[in-house]
């Protein structure tokens, strides 16, 4: 256990790690898959992990509300709440790809104070606590020191309505492909943010997201020394778009995608 975490954060981390064990146990089993949209999938594992997390976290913080992907009736953020994506990267999970995570953030009095991104199929668990830093498997992490887009490895993602927005998305992607060292698409926003926090990626951008996609990962990036804003450079409001980076190339990449 990371001794630098508060007892509250350590307790939450233990619960999220238990939730990850459900994902790991179900990974190679046949899945019951249904569609929420044309390419938006959900499995029985999404529901099982979400139910487990809500039950256990409610004991830890009886006063907190929940905004969880599979049960949310709106995107309204209560001032004090858990923000949960039980399986971020469900399409990957359904296809047997290990790039999938459990993402949990705690928001207290309107401010993110804890973020956990657990990738059990990769054997990695990331945690950040406001004002204390960010860690992977108990080791402190930091963003990269890359200073130019030409040397940057950038991550992105595509929204579920990509078919109706192909030109817009490609117009944004084209200058990034032409300028940066490389572009990657993992298919799990929280993992993209975690990998930006630990320096594997130098930056990440995407729109068409929900609060549970970016809440935990955004705190990871900030506590690892990076910068997170809206894709237009405005303060992040856990809305639909995010631009995260090591801070050094934030403006330059923002200019490219805008």
TrEMBL record:
Transmembrane segments: none annotated. Signal peptide: none annotated. InterPro entries: IMPase (IPR033942), Inositol_monoP_metal-BS (IPR020583), Inositol_monophosphatase-like (IPR000760), Inositol_monophosphatase_CS (IPR020550), Inositol_monophosphatase_SuhB (IPR022337). Mg(2+) binds at residues 69, 85, 88, 213. It catalyses: a myo-inositol phosphate + H2O = myo-inositol + phosphate. GO terms for biological process: inositol metabolic process; phosphatidylinositol phosphate biosynthetic process; signal transduction. The keyword Cytoplasm does not apply. This is Inositol-1-monophosphatase. Its cofactor is Mg(2+). Belongs to the inositol monophosphatase superfamily. Its EC number is 3.1.3.25. The lineage of its organism: Bacteria, Pseudomonadati, Thermodesulfobacteriota, Desulfovibrionia, Desulfovibrionales. PANTHER family: INOSITOL MONOPHOSPHATASE, INOSITOL-1-MONOPHOSPHATASE-RELATED. One of its GO terms (molecular function) is metal ion binding. It comes from Candidatus Bilophila faecipullorum.
């Amino acid at each position: 256990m990371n001794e630098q975490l508060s007892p509250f954060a350590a307790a939450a981390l233990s619960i999220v790690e238990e939730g990850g064990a459900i994902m790991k146990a179900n990974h190679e089993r046949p899945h019951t898959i249904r569609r929420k949209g044309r390419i938006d999938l959900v499995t029985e594992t999404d529901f099982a992990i979400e139910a487990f997390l809500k039950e256990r976290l409610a004991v830890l913080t009886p006063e907190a509300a929940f905004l969880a992907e599979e049960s949310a009736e709106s995107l309204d953020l209560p001032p004090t709440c858990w923000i949960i994506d039980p399986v971020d990267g469900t399409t990957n999970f359904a296809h047997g790809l290990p790039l999938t995570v459990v993402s949990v953030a705690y928001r207290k009095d309107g401010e993110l104070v804890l973020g956990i991104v657990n990738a059990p199929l990769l054997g990695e668990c990331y945690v950040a606590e406001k004002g204390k830093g960010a860690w992977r498997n108990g080791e402190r992490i930091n963003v990269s020191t890359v200073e130019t887009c030409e040397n940057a490895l950038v991550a992105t993602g595509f929204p579920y309505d990509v078919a109706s927005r192909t030109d817009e998305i490609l117009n944004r992607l084209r200058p990034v492909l032409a300028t940066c060292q490389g572009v990657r698409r993992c298919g799990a926003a929280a993992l993209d943010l975690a990998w930006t926090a630990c320096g594997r990626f130098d930056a990440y951008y995407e729109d068409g997201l929900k609060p549970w996609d970016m809440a935990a990962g955004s705190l990871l990036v900030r506590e690892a020394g990076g910068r997170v804003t809206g894709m237009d450079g405005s303060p992040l409001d856990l809305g639909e778009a995010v631009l995260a980076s090591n801070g050094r190339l934030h403006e330059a990449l923002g200019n490219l995608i805008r």
